[in-house]
């Protein structure tokens, strides 16, 4: 069978959609033919005409879902008679948390509501042989005006038994992805924690137990070597929410990684009591040069009660110093505009970061995506009206959609915070800077300061100066054209 996968890879560099690439590998291994399209009308029309797929499969995340829904509408326009058009399946996080989409959109034939690898292969086998596929677990199906709602397999997949994700299809379509000197990896699924701004909480409810899993050190290193031997790579980025699976795991990983790979890498770590000096030492020995950590709020009561993150300020300060002791570049992330907080609380977050002194601080505004606990809180507090449809929100929105009277100041603070945290002498000027209608300038300044910080964080010699200038000149244009005034 021919399956056309649709995903917006235009903004990706060395990163890949890991679940989708795992699925693509299994589909190819089972003898099916695959292709990949961007979700715009021109690209999808060309792919449908030239590839002639029987199934078009979308991988959709919340916050970007409107792009894919528009694409599905384009397919419907191209095929006015439904019986002539390809079968449309939607997977990814969005239909899992908002499964009503198949009831609200008659152009969607099926959605995947759980992990898709094994059950999608089962669906394809039934589809190709003409058998009844409408009872396939982990999927809901449209049959006329009725929706067949099947159960979710209660046991999560053993990710160590899944094949290595297929990067080849994406890399064949995108030269920037293929040639990116940083490649990204993910060695786990799920999360042990229950942060109210993350959809992992929802997945833990779906699967009850056992949803958090990680690869063995051997499988993790095997996946890395499979990539770096085929594609030029100078630095790696481990995308796991918390790259700390215990001292024993880190010791085994360090030994294998130094022997088989031995490239510098960055990773995410939670700055909590479990992050010990021994763990940081092992990461440093393995080649860790940068750590990204969520601070989120400077007020520890808000962090604990509203965000369900239990690190105290003292612990965060202690663990940040631990990274400095090992000369590891630190990147802190923050959320501004959290429901049931004030602008003064956001300034408190800024000032705590000034005490924390990360090498770089990345800040964003809270976006109330569907079925987040924080989104539910926003409705309850009247920050979102009952008629507000959070499915219409896009993660690229500039101003907060919450009913607050300091949207512009919040947006300006978000764009200025990284620079002020790096250069504390600017802090007394903040009230004046927030009063100026220089939103586009602040947006552009933030964009390029982030890029410059990213470049300076890389190990020396990772990217040559000429390549840096090439990327920088390209992003200057993208920065000014990327600004959208709300």
Describe the structure.
The chain has 486 residues and is α/β, with parallel strands linked by helices. The protein has 2 domains: 148 residues, Rossmann fold (3-Layer(aba) Sandwich), CATH 3.40.50; 302 residues, Alpha-Beta Horseshoe (pyruvate-formate lyase- activating enzyme). The protein is built from 20 helices and 15 strands. A 7-stranded mixed sheet has the order 2-1-3-4-5-6-7, sandwiched between helices. Strands 8-11-12-13-14-15 form a 6-stranded parallel sheet, sandwiched between helices. α11 runs parallel beside α12. The protein is globular. 37% of the residues are buried.
The termini sit apart by 44 Å
If you compute it from the alpha carbons, what radius of gyration comes out, rounded to the nearest whole angstrom?
A: 23 Å
Report the sheet-strand fraction: 5-15%
The portion of residues assigned to helices is 40-55%
Low-confidence stretches: 475-486
The total of beta strands comes to 15
Class by helix and strand content? alpha/beta
Q: Shape, please? A: globular
How many domains in all?
2
User: What would CATH call the class of the largest domain?
Assistant: Alpha Beta
Oligomer designation? single chain
Q: Kindly report the name of the CATH homologous superfamily of the largest domain.
A: tm_1862 like domain
If you average the pLDDT, what whole number results? 90
Main beta sheet, described?
7 strands, mixed
SS summary, helix count: 20
What is the CATH topology assignment of the largest domain? pyruvate-formate lyase- activating enzyme
CATH architecture of the largest domain: Alpha-Beta Horseshoe
* Spatial sequence of strands, sheet with the most strands: 2-1-3-4-5-6-7
């Amino acid at each position: 069978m021919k399956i056309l996968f649709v995903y917006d890879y235009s903004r990706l560099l060395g990163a890949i959609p890991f679940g989708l690439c795992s699925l693509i590998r299994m589909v190819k291994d089972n003898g099916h033919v695959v292709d990949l399209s961007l979700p715009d009308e021109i690209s999808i029309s060309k792919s449908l005409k030239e590839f002639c797929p029987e199934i078009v499969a979308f991988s959709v995340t919340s916050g970007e879902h409107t792009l894919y829904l528009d694409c599905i509408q384009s397919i419907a326009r191209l095929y006015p008679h439904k019986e002539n058009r390809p079968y449309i399946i939607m997977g990814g996080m969005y239909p899992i948390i908002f499964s009503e989409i198949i009831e609200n959109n008659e152009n969607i034939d099926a959605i995947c509501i759980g992990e898709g690898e094994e059950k999608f292969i089962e669906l394809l086998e039934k589809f190709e042989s003409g058998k009844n596929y409408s009872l396939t677990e982990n999927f809901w199906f449209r049959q006329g005006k009725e929706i067949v709602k099947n159960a979710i397999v209660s046991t999560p997949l053993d990710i160590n038994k899944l094949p290595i994700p297929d990067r080849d299809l994406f890399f064949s379509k995108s030269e920037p992805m293929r040639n990116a000197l940083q490649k990204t990896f993910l060695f786990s699924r799920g999360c042990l924690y229950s942060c109210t701004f993350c959809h992992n909480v929802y997945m833990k409810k779906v699967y009850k137990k056992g949803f958090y899993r990680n690869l063995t050190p051997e499988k993790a290193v095997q996946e890395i070597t499979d990539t770096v031997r085929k594609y030029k790579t100078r630095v790696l980025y481990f995308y796991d929410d918390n790259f700390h699976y215990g001292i024993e795991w880190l010791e085994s990983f360090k030994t294998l990684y130094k022997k088989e790979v031995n490239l510098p890498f960055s990773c995410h770590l939670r700055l909590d009591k479990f992050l010990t000096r021994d763990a940081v030492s092992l990461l440093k020995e393995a080649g860790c040069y940068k750590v990204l950590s969520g601070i989120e709020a400077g007020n520890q009561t808000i962090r604990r009660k509203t965000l369900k993150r239990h690190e105290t300020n003292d612990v965060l300060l202690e663990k940040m110093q631990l990274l400095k002791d090992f000369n590891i570049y630190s990147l802190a992330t923050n959320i501004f505009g959290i429901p049931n907080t004030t602008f003064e609380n956001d300034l408190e977050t800024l000032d705590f970061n000034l005490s924390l002194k990360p090498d770089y601080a990345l800040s964003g505004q809270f976006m109330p995506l569907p079925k987040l606990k924080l989104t539910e809180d926003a409705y309850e507090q009247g920050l979102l009206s009952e008629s507000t449809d959070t499915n219409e929100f896009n993660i690229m929105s500039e101003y907060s959609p919450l009913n607050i009277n300091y949207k512009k100041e919040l947006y300006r603070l978000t764009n200025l915070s990284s620079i002020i945290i790096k250069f504390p002498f600017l802090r007394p000027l903040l009230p004046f800077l927030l009063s100026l209608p220089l939103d586009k300038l602040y947006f552009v300044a933030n964009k390029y300061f982030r890029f410059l910080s990213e470049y300076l964080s890389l190990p020396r010699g990772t990217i040559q100066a000429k390549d840096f200038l090439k990327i920088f000149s390209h992003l200057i244009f993208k920065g000014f054209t990327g600004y959208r005034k709300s």
